[in-house]
Amino acid sequence: xxxxxxxxxxxxxxxxxxxxxxxxxxxxxxxxxxxxxxxxxxxxxxxxxxxxxxxxxxxxxxxxxxxxxxxxxxxxxxxxxxxxxxxxxxxxxxxxxxxxxxxxxxxxxxxxxxxxxxxxxxxxxxxxxx
Length: 130
Fold this sequence. Notes:
This protein is mostly helical. 78% of the residues lie in helices and 0% in strands. The protein contains five helices and no strands. Helix 2 packs antiparallel against helix 5 (85-113) and helix 3 (38-59) runs antiparallel to helix 4 (64-82). The longest helix is centred in the C-terminal third of the chain and has 29 residues, at 85-113. It is elongated. It starts with a helix and ends in a 17-residue tail after the last helix.
């Protein structure tokens, strides 16, 4: 087996193992909860309607006040979505997965570069605790 084939085979195996991690499972659950949250669905629908209104306003060359009102509402909806419990839990779960992936990448980079891995006890250099 060629080196590249070995790399990709090991990457597939690593991906399968990572997929079993609790952080990945929590992200999947949070994504499902976010995508089915009634408040998020309502806000998302209104967001799409406002986007359509904005497109129509541009095509009719409406005045700036109309654009500003629609944009203000779009921004307000966006901010409301960010404040939902479902979004906050999804974001937290995504951050945990990002931390895990950063740690995995840092570990691989340490092996490639021959630099010692492990805890430096300097949290600014760390991708997350082990």
